[in-house]
């Protein structure tokens, strides 16, 4: 390190003599180059996959599952809402252990899957998934990231059924009538100001009104995907148009 | 009575005889008498208590330790108690439950999982077997080691490919057990704060010095050039200092050194990992780039190769798309500037162990992102074919920032 420091000092001096006033940034980058030669390089190739990539995060599944694809949680069904970008995944439950079959049959419509749900979110920065193949790094843009969290639809639907039953059970109740009047008024006002729905409420509304599109889940397409992504054209070097200063000025 | 309030001594009765304590001696009762008393009062109570105890598991070992008397132990939530593992041989073993269901399958699965976790790090731990991590607390160093081990384990995955169906089932079973977020015990916070304070104080002594210099120009406007020169020199001095500390704007040189060491370690780790996932199926690394990349010239030769490659497959569709491309070539370029395909640069490993990334002509910094402890899948979404394809998992994260 100390030797390197001396070298950079000399370089700086010679440049001072040559240019008089020196550009600090230029100097620093030059120091970087000469002080610290590049030993090894991994080429970066930007590519585009045939379809958009999403990343699904499973906060309730440990990472060590990724060690072996066989141990990856099996998936019984996938659904996706395109417009509101909502994912829903069914993971079959092990009904042999820690599972109350009677209760499931009794009130939860024989549920035997765990449903994970998440909204895919895009990001301002550029996100890529990198694949290494033959010493080269291929970057495929990641469109959205979703966090898949347990969603207890069977409980919700059960409660909804209960509520409906309760409402049917006492239609003659005067208090219920009053309630209805109130809800009516709310409804009318919301209709008048429908445009005011914004943010989360709007997103909810859009998501509720959209139908899920069932998808087929495949997990053996990695090879063909990589084949497709690592085509020759992705290794063709591109000519850069920006240099350091221009790029930095574009950022701010 | 000289106008003073009466003191303690003055208030004393001047009789001269002080009070003395004379304990009253009570004759000890005979044994028969005592026994009779005890029997009358305590016999029913004792019996009740005995009954209670017999219902509980025998022995006092499972009862709360004395120092936890009158305290409520919270085992979950943000205020959860830390480690008070009873007989564990190491402090970091945490609150580990050794019981569980009686099913031997469960037991085996738990053991397999705990062995997985202990693999490589501590051979002793695996002897204990049958354990779940119920809120293990890590020190920072331990955590780092363990996360590193997580990736080192990958090498072993080939060996247990021949794992029997039964052990796989038991492992999957063990995965049903609750997972807790990893908690890191930040012991070093205190010392870090001290360091920060020190550096702060040195900053304070440094900053006020230009103060008087600032005052002078207001009094004499004629020497403006001198002041500008002076300030320029100050700036240059500062810049020089900053450069010496290699981009870390810390004042303490020892701290800067530590920082660089950490950075190098991270870079080494990333480089290792990149090499590790080379040609390994189902493994991805997540990259974060700034919102804009340097621009590149869309190259005509790229298009020609595009034509060469594509006709093998669906010729009709491609022709159509190419025609539309040629028609609206300008529009498509404006509409979709994204499909940038080609070699844009490289990740470079320097001799010192530093890593940098070069995109076009721009050199950028690359740093290691926070590792996640949970599973992350990469999925391609094919809405037309109505398919979701699981491609693999994300292993590691790198963040690329512009070098300023």
From TrEMBL, chain A:
One of its GO terms (cellular component) is RNA polymerase III complex. GO terms for biological process: tRNA transcription by RNA polymerase III. Pfam families: RPC5. Signal peptide: none annotated. Residues 1-21 are annotated as: Disordered. InterPro entries: RNA_pol_III_Rpc5. PANTHER family: DNA-DIRECTED RNA POLYMERASE III SUBUNIT RPC5, DNA-DIRECTED RNA POLYMERASES III 80 KDA POLYPEPTIDE RNA POLYMERASE III SUBUNIT 5. This is KLLA0F13948p. It comes from Kluyveromyces lactis (strain ATCC 8585 / CBS 2359 / DSM 70799 / NBRC 1267 / NRRL Y-1140 / WM37). The lineage of its organism: Eukaryota, Fungi, Dikarya, Ascomycota, Saccharomycotina.
TrEMBL record, chain B:
Keywords: DNA-directed RNA polymerase, Nucleus, Transcription. The keyword Transcription applies. Residues 55-74 have a biased composition (Polar residues). Residues 29-52, 137-148, 304-319 have a biased composition (Basic and acidic residues). InterPro entries: RPC4 (IPR007811). This is KLLA0C16379p. The lineage of its organism: Eukaryota, Fungi, Dikarya, Ascomycota, Saccharomycotina. One of its GO terms (molecular function) is DNA binding. GO terms for biological process: tRNA transcription by RNA polymerase III. It is found in: Nucleus. Residues 149-158 have a biased composition (Acidic residues). One of its GO terms (cellular component) is RNA polymerase III complex. The keyword Nucleus applies. Residues 1-168, 202-224, 296-344 are annotated as: Disordered. It comes from the Eukaryota. It comes from Kluyveromyces lactis (strain ATCC 8585 / CBS 2359 / DSM 70799 / NBRC 1267 / NRRL Y-1140 / WM37).
């Amino acid at each position: 390190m100390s030797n390197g420091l001396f070298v950079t000092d000399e370089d700086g001096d010679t440049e001072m003599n040559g240019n008089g006033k020196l550009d600090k940034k230029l100097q620093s980058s030059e120091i970087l180059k000469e002080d610290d030669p590049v030993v090894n390089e991994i080429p970066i190739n930007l590519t585009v996959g045939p379809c958009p990539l999403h990343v699904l995060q499973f906060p309730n599944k440990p990472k060590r599952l990724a060690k072996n694809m066989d141990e990856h949680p099996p998936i019984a069904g996938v659904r996706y809402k395109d417009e509101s970008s909502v994912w829903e995944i069914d993971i079959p439950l092990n009904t042999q252990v820690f599972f109350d079959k009677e209760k499931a049959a009794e009130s939860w419509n024989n549920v035997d899957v765990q449903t994970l749900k998440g909204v895919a979110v895009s990001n301002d920065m550029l996100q890529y998934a990198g694949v290494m193949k033959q010493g080269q790094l291929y970057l495929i843009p990641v469109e959205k990231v979703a966090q898949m969290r347990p969603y207890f639809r069977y409980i919700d639907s059960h409660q909804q059924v209960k509520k409906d039953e309760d409402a049917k059970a006492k239609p003659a109740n005067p208090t219920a009538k009053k309630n209805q009047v109130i809800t009516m008024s709310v409804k009318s006002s919301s209709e008048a100001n429908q445009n005011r729905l914004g943010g989360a409420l709007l997103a909810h509304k859009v998501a509720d009104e959209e139908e899920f599109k069932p998808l087929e889940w495949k997990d053996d397409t990695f090879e063909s995907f990589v084949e497709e992504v690592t085509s020759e054209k992705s290794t063709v070097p591109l000519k850069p148009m920006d240099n350091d200063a221009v790029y930095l000025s574009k950022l701010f | 009575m000289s106008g003073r309030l009466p003191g303690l001594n003055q208030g004393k009765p001047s009789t001269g005889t002080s009070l003395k304590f004379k304990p009253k001696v009570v004759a000890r009762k005979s044994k028969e008498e005592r026994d009779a008393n005890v029997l009358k009062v305590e016999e029913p109570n004792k019996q009740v208590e005995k009954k209670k105890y017999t219902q509980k598991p025998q022995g006092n070992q499972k009862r709360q330790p004395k120092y936890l008397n009158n305290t409520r132990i919270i085992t979950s939530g943000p205020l959860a108690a830390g480690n008070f593992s009873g007989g564990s041989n190491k402090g970091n073993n945490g609150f580990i439950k050794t019981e569980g269901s009686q099913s031997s399958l469960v037991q085996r699965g738990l053991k397999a999982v705990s062995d997985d976790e202990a693999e490589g790090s501590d051979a002793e731990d695996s002897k204990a077997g049958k354990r779940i991590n119920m809120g293990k607390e890590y020190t920072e160093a331990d955590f780092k080691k363990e996360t590193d081990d997580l990736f080192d384990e990958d090498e072993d995955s080939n060996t247990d490919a021949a794992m029997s169906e039964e052990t796989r089932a038991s492992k999957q079973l063990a995965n049903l057990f609750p997972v807790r977020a990893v908690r890191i015990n930040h012991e070093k916070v205190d010392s870090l704060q001290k360091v920060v304070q020190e550096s702060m104080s040195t900053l304070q002594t440094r900053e006020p010095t230009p103060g008087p210099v600032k005052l002078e120009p207001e009094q004499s406007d004629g020497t403006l050039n001198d002041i500008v020169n002076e300030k320029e020199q100050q700036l240059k001095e500062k810049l020089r200092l900053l450069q010496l500390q290699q981009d870390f704007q810390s004042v303490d040189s020892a701290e800067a050194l530590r920082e660089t060491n950490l950075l190098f370690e991270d870079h080494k780790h990333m480089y290792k990992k990149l090499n590790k996932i080379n040609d390994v199926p189902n493994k991805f690394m997540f990259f974060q780039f700034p919102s804009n990349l340097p621009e590149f010239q869309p190259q005509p030769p790229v298009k020609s190769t595009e034509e060469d490659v594509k006709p093998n497959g669906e010729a009709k569709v491609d022709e159509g798309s190419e025609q539309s491309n040629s028609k609206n070539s300008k529009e498509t370029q404006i509409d979709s500037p994204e499909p940038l395909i080609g070699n844009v640069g490289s990740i470079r490993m320097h001799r010192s162990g530093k890593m940098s990334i070069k995109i076009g002509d721009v050199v950028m910094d690359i740093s290691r992102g926070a590792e996640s402890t949970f599973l992350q899948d990469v999925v391609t979404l094919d809405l037309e074919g109505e398919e979701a394809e699981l491609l693999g998992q994300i292993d590691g994260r790198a963040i690329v920032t512009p070098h300023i």
